[in-house]
Amino acid sequence: MMVEFSEKFVQKCEEYVSKNPEVAKDVEEFIRRCGRLGLYNLKMAFGDCSDGGFEVKDGPMKRGIAVRKVYIPDDDYNEIKAFLEKKGILRTVTSLYYFSALMVILGYWKLPPRI
Known about the structure:
Shape: globular
Helix content: 40-55%
Structural class: mainly alpha
Largest sheet: 2 strands, antiparallel
Number of helices: 4
Distance between the termini: 24 Å
């Protein structure tokens, strides 16, 4: 699944990865790892997907913002979408990736070194 992120966001992620090369080999890996970390942290805070929820939709970015596409494995995308549909925490799958990466970049969450 290709997910679009703003060019400025991707540049901030690239800056973080260049200063912290132990967390990812490139920006795509960094964004994927942040999404997994975000899902893990939100599941710890809000529980699993056993209760009801609402529909989550994802679509292309609008308003002429420069975007860059990042490949997200279908399994990750589908797991995040199912969780968000059940919990209603964020509106789109992309927003979880934005949120998670920003939490890491700002230092609120610690992304462990890659294996």
